[in-house]
Specification:
The chain has about 140 residues and is mainly α. It contains 7 helices and 2 strands.
Amino acid sequence: MRIQQLFGLGARYGVLRTARVQFPRGLASAPTIPATPIGLQRKQRAPEDTHTMRRRLLYQMRKRGILETDLLLSTFASQHLPTLSRDEMSDLDVLLSNIDWDIFYWATNKTQAPKEVSDMPVFQKLKEHAAKRGSTIVRMPDL
């Protein structure tokens, strides 16, 4: 079976690249890949004290990679992270395992958050924080 695909800049100039795909014996077509959820898959971490967890979460909330999410999460962290309980920080850790755009759209009510996320008390605080931001100019808080 031959599959032709357009790749990167080649697509701009109409360059086609052909690849040969071979399926295992006995399969007439591509195998079915089971759907796996994106995000909410926790990494197993070594036990850490509350101070270390708080500092790790602060770093993860400032260095996401997408400016909109960085600004939302870093301002939330500067205002709320010092007062979060251990359980709320654990929920926040789970929330941060999701894709940046998902977190941003869920917090700003652009898309519906999954039930596992919307049931988290810390997520409700994040949504309230996002709603209060308004149209003011936001910058990263100082460390």
